[in-house]
C-alpha cells in the first residue's frame, strides 16, 4: 500500500482530480444560484416567504445529515463508486427541479441534489490529500479552494442575469449539461485511489448526528425569519444541542466512531478548525450585508448587486492556486497573518459606508476583502489536515465540511439578529429625536416618506454596527493566527487498510 502511495505521489492523477473538481464546482455553484430567484418562484407557485425558504432549508438539512456521515462512506466505499453515485443523484435532482410542476416536487428535487452534492467536497478533499505528498498539498488544495470559494460567489451574478432575462428553470438547465458530462466522463475515466476498509455504519450514531446537526442548522437558519422567541427555533436548537452532545459522547466511547472527534488531540488541526469557524462567521457578514445594503438601501438591481461582488470572486479564484504555492513555500502562519490583517482593515472600512459611498469604492473594498480571505481559508485548513495521519483524513475532511455548514448558519443568524436589533433601536432613537425637535411631518404622504427615510437610516446604522462586530470577530481570528505552526503528518499506525478494486 505504501509503495502504491509513493508511486502516486510521484505522478499524481491530475485527470481524475479535474473530473471531480468540475463535479464539485457545479455542485457548489448550484448552492447559491436560487437565492436571487426566490421571489420569482414564490410568485409562480403562490407560496409564502416562510414556505419558499424550504428550497434552501431542505437542501441545507440534507447536507447537515450526510456530511458528518461522509467519513464512513469514504472509508467504506471506493472513490469511484461514491463519486458516480453522488453525480447521478445530483444530475437526477437537477433534471427534476428543472421540470418540477409543483413547489413540493421542487423542494424534493433540491433534497435529491443535496444528497449528491453533500459527499463531493469531503470526497474530493480526501482524494487530494491521498494523491499529493505534503510538500505539494498547498498547491493542490489551492485549486480545490478555487471550487470551494469561487463557485458560490459567482452564483448570485449569474442568477441575477438569468432571472432578469429568462425563466428561473434555465438556472437548472445551465447546470444539468455540465453534471451529465461529468457523470459520463467519470464513468469512463475515474479510478480508485483512496484506501478503504470494512467499517460498519453505526445506526444510533447516524440518528443522533442527523437530529443534532439537523436541529442546530434548522434552528439557526430559521431564526432570522421566525424570531428567536419562536418554539420552532429555540426548541430545535435545544433538541439539536442535546442530541449533538450525546453524539459526541458516543463517538468517544465506541471503537469505530462514525465521526472521530479524537482528531482534536492534534493541536494544529484544532486551531485550524477554530480559525476557520471564526473567519467563516466574519466572511458571511460581507456576503449577506453587502447585497442587503446595495439592493435595499441604495436601490441597485440584483444583477448589478451580483456584479459588484464578481471581481471579489474572480480575485479569490486567481489567488487560490497562488496562495497554495505560497503555502508550500512559506507555510500558513505568515499568509494567515497578512490575509487576516487585510480582512480586519477592509471589514472596518465597510462599517463606515454611507448613503453616498460610491459603487466602485464599495466594489474595491469588497474585492480587497476577498483577497485577504483567500490568503487564509485554504492554507489554514491544509496546515491543520497535514497534522493528521492518513487513516484520519476522512474524519478531518468530514469535520471541516460539517463545521463550515454549522458556522455559516450560526454566523448568518447571529449577524442578522445583531443587525435587526440595532436597526430597531436606531429607528426608535431617530424617531424620538425627530419628535423632540418637531420635525415629524403631519400630512399622510409626507409622513410615509419620512418613515421610509428613517427606516433606511436605521438599517444603514444596523449594517454599519454589524460590520463593526464582524471586524472584532476577524480580530479574534488574527490573534489566533500568531499561534499557527508548520506541521508534517505523523506516520499512520493503521494496518488494516486495503485498497478495494472493482
UniProtKB/TrEMBL annotation:
Q: Does the keyword Transmembrane apply?
A: yes
- Which Gene3D superfamilies did the record assign? MFS general substrate transporter like domains, Multidrug resistance protein D
Coarse class of the protein's main subcellular location: membrane
Domain Major facilitator superfamily (MFS) profile residues, every copy: 16-489
Q: Which PROSITE patterns match?
A: MFS
Q: State the membrane topology.
A: Multi-pass membrane protein
Which key words are in the record?
A: Cell membrane, Membrane, Transmembrane, Transmembrane helix, Transport
Whether Methyltransferase counts among this entry's keywords is: no
Spans through the membrane: 12-34, 54-74, 86-108, 114-134, 141-162, 168-188, 200-221, 233-249, 269-294, 306-327, 357-380, 465-484
| Location in the cell | Cell membrane
Family of this protein = Belongs to the major facilitator superfamily. EmrB family.
From the Swiss-Prot or TrEMBL record, give the protein name.
DHA2 family efflux MFS transporter permease subunit
